[in-house]
Amino acid sequence: MAGGGAAGMIAAWRAASAGFDTTLLEANDRLGMKIRISGGGKCNITHDGPMASVLAAFPRAQARFLRPALFAFTNRDVLDLLAREGVHAQARDNGRVFPVDGPGSAAKVTAAFEALVRRAGVQVRLGARVRALEGRAPRLEALVLEDGTWLRADRFILATGGASYPRTGTRGELLAALGALGVPVAPWFPALAPIPLKAPRPEWEGIPLREGALLLKAGPGAKVLARYPGDVLFTRAGISGPAALELSRPVEAARRDGAAWLGYELAAGDLDGDLVALQRENPHLAVRTWLARWLPERMCAPALGMLGLAPDQRMKDLPRAGRKDLAALLAAFPLGEPGRVDLEKGEVSAGGVLLSAVDPRTLAVKGWENLRVCGELLDVDGPVGGYNLQAAFSTGYLAGSLAEVSTHST
Ligand SMILES: Cc1cc2nc3c(=O)[nH]c(=O)nc-3n(C[C@H](O)[C@H](O)[C@H](O)COP(=O)(O)OP(=O)(O)OC[C@H]3O[C@@H](n4cnc5c(N)ncnc54)[C@H](O)[C@@H]3O)c2cc1C
User: Fold this and answer.
1) Got the DSSP string for 124-162?
2) Which atom of ligand 1 sits closest to the CA of residue 129?
3) Per-residue pLDDT averaged across 203-210, rounded?
4) Which protein residues touch ligand 1 with a CB less than 6 Å away?
5) 89 CA to middle of ligand 1, Å?
6) Considering only CA atoms, which residue is closest to atom 11 of ligand 1?
7) Hey, what domains does the chain have and what are their CATH numbers?
8) What is the arithmetic mean of pLDDT over 141-162?
9) Where does the record place the RsdA/BaiN/AoA(So)-like insert domain (predicted)?
10) What is the band of 403 on the pLDDT scale with cuts at 50, 70, 90?
11) Average pLDDT over residues 401-409
């Protein structure tokens, strides 16, 4: 087994519990580094609700692939397992499930999985980074460590994760090694990452835009290519927040295609009609006061400036063109062109071993007798909300569910 993260720990625990002589190789000097930093150190373990609704949060092809794994090891199974290790969790109103312990609880989740792994008798080798894969379809022969050591086994499970947050141990190098062996792979691609802007607004750092939707277009006047409802937060370099993370992947794809522009839909509907009515009913109302219904106070004067309107502009003096501009501003508040979305800053990495190359019932790589892959190394990237850890736990469980045989090592 290579990779002692969410998927690898569950796979190793599962295989060893079934009597397999299991060795877990982990590049870091401790297990589960990414779980430790997950959910801001609190760990959003999974998502609440029936598995059908958990599955529905993934893109359709991924959901189809994940179905056997997520039903084999459900969110309830994960939480029961943790509860038996003394880590109790509860769901928030938005369905995200966290340990009840609060800050730092991600470390307890990691410790619980590590305890399971060790009790099951898994031989854990820390500081053991796999550099290369030796073999030829249909059999993998050995994992080659950085110091040149070859580790042979009857079966291999790879759970080395994605390529984001490389300082947590995930550099993504085994994807290329798999590709070189002829396993179909999609290159790593940024996902769930903050979006830099070509013209950032550092003076707005920390300000949120709420209750609207982030829009991706090819240009300011172009049609909407993608829309994600949710908040965004201005950062020094661009935008973050739920909607920005979720839209980062299509934004980077559009940017690479040569045309990407971002706006935030603050309000929808017949805004021009509303403004006409308002000019009649409340002519002395300051435009800025009206704007503050949607836009944070600090942004109102600069927003009026963007339209060439004075900060004390009254409704009654607003010309037709100004009204139209104002309605357009609320329909798509301009954030401008995105910069390059950084793969390393993503909560997950898109790309990985192609799902079509893997049997969803076993996680075995097609055409290979003794090779399974699980977790983020697969071409799976769910939304924020506990979905990605659940996918890692479930695929790890299925990958570690090896057919019972007398003496074998993994
Ligand atoms: C900041 C952050 C916060 C997140 N928060 C959440 C959250 O709250 N909820 C959620 O559902 N998801 C969250 N995620 C995503 C989630 O952590 C991952 O989807 C999940 O950890 C993937 O599990 P994995 O086992 O496939 O990979 P990982 O957990 O990344 O584990 C892979 C392991 O393999 C090891 N490894 C890599 N290469 C090698 C090699 N060549 N040889 C040996 N070992 C190797 C790595 O050191 C690592 O320990 C977050 C991600 C980040 C970056």
Assistant:
1) EEET--EEEEEEETTEEEEEEETTS-EEE-S-EEE----
2) 42
3) 97
4) 2-8, 25-28, 33-35, 37-39, 43-44, 129-130, 159-161, 164-165, 169-171, 173-174, 347-348, 375-376, 386-389, 392
5) 20
6) 386
7) 6-190+345-400 (3.50.50.60), 195-266 (no CATH), 271-332 (1.10.8)
8) 97
9) 190-336
10) confident
11) 63
* 296 Cα to the center of ligand 1, angstroms: 36
CA of 302 to the centre of ligand 1 (A): 41
- The pLDDT tens digits for 348-367 are 999 999 999 999 999 999 99
Instruction: Give dist(CA 147, CA 170) in Å, integer.
Output: 18
Task: Cite the beta strand spans of 174-253 per DSSP E.
Answer: 185-191, 195-196, 208-209, 213-217, 224-229, 232-234, 238-240
Instruction: Name the pLDDT band for 333 (thresholds 50, 70, 90).
Output: very high
Residue 406 confidence (pLDDT) above 50:
no
Radius of gyration of the chain (CA): 25
| Among protein residues, the one whose CA lies closest to atom 4 of ligand 1 | 38
